């Protein structure tokens, strides 16, 4: 059971937009930065978004992040078949003194 | 560009220990924080702990307290994660990851090490 809550799966057609939610509490998302990771099958996670809404160099602006209160959202526009992957949110939990992740969301591009 | 290269796959018996290495190339290893994250088959990511090599200080997730030891050798730019009293539930891919210098995010990941615990 993950500390952060994500939907198990989302789907959309190529070219469309999708959002993935991540819900937490005041001890984690509410008072710490959120990051998002993309994990393609059989590979290590890759950082997509850090500090709630910043993109590392090389990450296209089709990927965006936002945070409000104790929830965060990852948005992906112009969906491509290559975006099919598992997506994880993560942050620090001040009560647990530990990094925590969501359970992951599987994105299917129909 | 910093890269993290991990040691190869391991097969262990229940009750034994495993030690996984994570060698950094490029950059200043000692000034980074290195975390260990594991992923059981078909499951999500689970943080195990971290170390700041320059200080030699490690912190662990409560779940793994007493069973995991994270160390770092500055002379070889290598971090290690040792997990003891292995059980079948410890079968997973173990990743090392660097904490970004100006953020708390994990910006660089090792390729992962599969550890299988089986009798």
UniProtKB/TrEMBL annotation, chain A:
CDD domains: IgV_L_lambda (cd04984)
Major location category of this protein: membrane
Location in the cell: Cell membrane; Secreted
Residue runs in coiled coils: none
Source taxon at top rank: Eukaryota
GO biological process per UniProt: adaptive immune response
InterPro entries: Ig-like_dom, Ig-like_dom_sf, Ig-like_fold, Ig_sub, Ig_V-set, IgV_Light_Chain
Keyword list, A-Z: Adaptive immunity, Cell membrane, Disulfide bond, Immunity, Immunoglobulin, Immunoglobulin domain, Membrane, Secreted
Pfam families registered for this protein in UniProt: V-set
Every Ig-like domain range: 1-89
Keyword Lipid metabolism among UniProt keywords: no
GO cellular component, one term: plasma membrane
Keyword Membrane: yes
Xref: PANTHER family: IMMUNOGLOBULIN LIGHT CHAIN
Quaternary structure annotation from Swiss-Prot or TrEMBL: Immunoglobulins are composed of two identical heavy chains and two identical light chains; disulfide-linked.
Full protein name: IGL c869_light_IGLV1-51_IGLJ3
